[in-house]
Structure formats: structure tokens, C-alpha cells
């Protein structure tokens, strides 16, 4: 089922394939569950060849997770003016 089709629905468990979802669609997908939401990020599709060469072989599950999250975050940077990921505020400029 697409995220648009799931709008307004609730399920006990949500399985979300995160490739190519923008932040707003991802939020809608991740809030359809009562108990668990599992986000699947295909690192092999999102990580660039340059990233793979620079980082080398994956060194365990924690490294694979961090690399998948970094690759996904890179797809979100500059997404839109109202993006959900923004730099942390500078406390000295407050």
C-alpha cells in the first residue's frame, strides 16, 4: 500500500520502505502504527559509489545502520525550504 493510500489508517505494525520518501511523506508513513514502525533503508541503493570507496567494507550492524542513515539524510538535505532536517542553532547567536 502506498503512503497516500494509508493516510488516516492505523495498523498494529507498519513496515516502511524509505527509499525516495521525502520528510513529509516519511512522517505520514511512520505514524500509521499502534505498536511498531520499521523503516527499511536500502543502503546499497542510496549510498553513492564515492561513499562506498571512501568508507570501505561495512564493519558490523552498527556501521551498516549509521551508513544507511547518513545516505538517507543526504537525500533529504536541501529537500525544500521547509525541510524537517535543519542545522542546530548556534547558541552564540541567540
How helical, in percent, are the residues? 40-55%
Shape assignment: globular
Major sheet summary line:
2 strands, parallel
Cα separation of the termini? 44 Å
What's the total number of strands?
A: 2
SS class: alpha+beta
Uncertain spans, ≥5 residues at pLDDT below 50? Answer: 79-83
What's the average pLDDT?
Answer: 82
Order of helices and strands: HEHEHHH
Number of alpha- plus pi-helical segments: 5
User: What is the gyration radius calculated from CA atoms?
Assistant: 16 Å
Spatial order of strands in the largest sheet: 1-2
Q: How much of the polypeptide forms β-strand, as a percent range?
A: 15-25%
Give a quick set of tags describing it.
94 residues, alpha+beta, 2 strands
Report on this structure.
This protein is α+β, with helices and mostly antiparallel strands and 94 residues long. It is built from five helices and two strands; from the N terminus they run H-E-H-E-H-H-H. A two-stranded parallel ribbon has the order 1-2. Strand 1, helix 2 and strand 2 form a beta-alpha-beta unit. It is globular and about 40 Å long.
Task: Tell me the layout of helices and strands.
Blueprint: H1 3-6, E1 11-17, H2 23-30, E2 33-40, H3 43-46, H4 49-55, H5 61-76
Parallel strand pairs: 1-2
Q: Care to give the gist of this entry?
A:
This protein has 94 residues and is of the alpha+beta class.
Amino acid at each position: 500500500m502506498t503512503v497516500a493510500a494509508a493516510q488516516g489508517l492505523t495498523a498494529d505494525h507498519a513496515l516502511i520502505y524509505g527509499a525516495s520518501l521525502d520528510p513529509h511523506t516519511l512522517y505520514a508513513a511512520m505514524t500509521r502504527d499502534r505498536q511498531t514502525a520499521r523503516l527499511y533503508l536500502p543502503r546499497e541503493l542510496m549510498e553513492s559509489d564515492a561513499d562506498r570507496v571512501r568508507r570501505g567494507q561495512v564493519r558490523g550492524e552498527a556501521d551498516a545502520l549509521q551508513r544507511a542513515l547518513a545516505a538517507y539524510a543526504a537525500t533529504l538535505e536541501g529537500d525544500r525550504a521547509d525541510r524537517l532536517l535543519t542545522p542546530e542553532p548556534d547558541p552564540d547567536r541567540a
